[in-house]
Structures are given as structure tokens and as C-alpha cells.
Amino acid sequence: MKLHVVGCSGSMPGPASPASCYLVEAEHEGRSWTVALDLGNGSTGPMRHFLDPIDLDAVVLSHLHPDHCLDACSLYVALKYTPGRHRGTRMPLFAPAGAHDRLARAYGVEAAEPLDERYEFGEFEARVAFTVGPFTITPIPVFHPVEAYGLRVETGDAVLAYTGDTDICPQLSELMAGADLVLADSAYVDGRDDGEGVHMSGSKAARAALEAGGVRRLMLTHIPAWNDREVCRAQAAQVWCGQGREVELADPLATYEVGGAPRE
Q: Which domains does the chain possess?
């Protein structure tokens, strides 16, 4: 599995990155399949570094805050109005309850304007896996002010655990256990952000990964432009580093290999 980071800025786009958007890619039945995990503000433009957004096989939204879903409206424009391009089928869009109405309100001006013409909406359920090509995707409920899910994405030889937005919670062990790569929310900074139920700091993300067990790599993401990324990494490293482990930071427009190494 390949992970392409389109955008990794937390809460809003930053000067060097759109808001949250990640592509997972894997080979299946003689072709590459690509699924977008979240479509945060500003993500559909830079996505073209990897593929034309019209060619996505599906979109999966972790939750319905703007920095994770709002560019579904931009993708709709591309699907409907790109000259000379027509998919033939509607774009599958999997999301928590309410996405259909939420995006209709975001797209419409005088009134909600449903996007069914170009999207096929699918409402997922907690812990009920669904498949898109080679990917088995399991939504795990997490700890955030709105209904939100971490996404466990599995292929035959790889497991990616994407936390979405969450504070530390017991469900993260279910999401992360044995993952080749954990892509973890790290919007908060220890000693500055003391609220609960919104985001993790680097140290919390590292603690959750250790408690889950079997996690091979930890990558911090969703770091707002007002944070120092190296502070987030350092706080995680105090918990995670040792025995050859390093804390990674997601970089916009970077590609990472996930899995592929033999499992013990």
C-alpha cells in the first residue's frame, strides 16, 4: 500500500499544506486503486500531483468538520463540469450519518443543494467493515466533539490506522493494534492545550500507539500552522523513541510505503 499525503495541516489550510487529505493506493485486478481519506479545505487542487480527482475510486470521510470534508464540494464541481470528462458512474462517498445533508448545505447558497447527481452516498456504521477494491476499511468511533471515526485500512500485506481527529481513548487500541503505520492527530501541545475530548498531543499519540501494541511506525499529522512541528515530534519522542523507533512527521505531497515487510 502507498500513502500519498495531499494535505496534513490541522484545523485549516496552512501556508505549505491544505487541510487533511490522504490517498491510499494499492494494486488490484490489474490496475491501481486509489481512495481518498478526507477532503479538507484546498485539497483537490494539490491532489493532481498524484492523480486527477475525477479518477478516485472512492472518498471516505472520517467526520464532518470543514477541515476534513469541505472539498467534497470542490470535487463535485470537477465531477460535474470538467470539459470532456465523464465518469459514467457516481463517485462513492462513505461517511458518518448526516453527510448528505451537510454537504448539500455547504454547496448550496440560497438553499441546500443535494450532490446526488455525482455522488453515491454510503453511510457507514461503527466497526462494520466495507471494501473498495483491495481495501478493507473499518470505521472505529473515537473521542471528538462530533461523531467521528478513525479508519483502519487493510490490504493483504499492510495495515494503516488513521485516527482522524480524536483525543486519546480506549478505542484507539482497537484501531491501531498491529498497524504497519499509525497516522495520528497531533494538533495539541503538552503544557499549552489542556482541554479534553478534541485532539491529541504528540505524547498522547505515542502513548496510544504503545498501548495498542505491535505498531511499527508512528507518523504525526493534523498539526496546525501555529504549532512548531518539531515540538510535537519531540513530545512524542519522549514516549515513543527507543529500540530503533523514530517519530515521523507527515509532509504534504510526500509518498510513503506502508507494509510489505514480513510479519513475525
A: 2-257 (3.60.15.10)
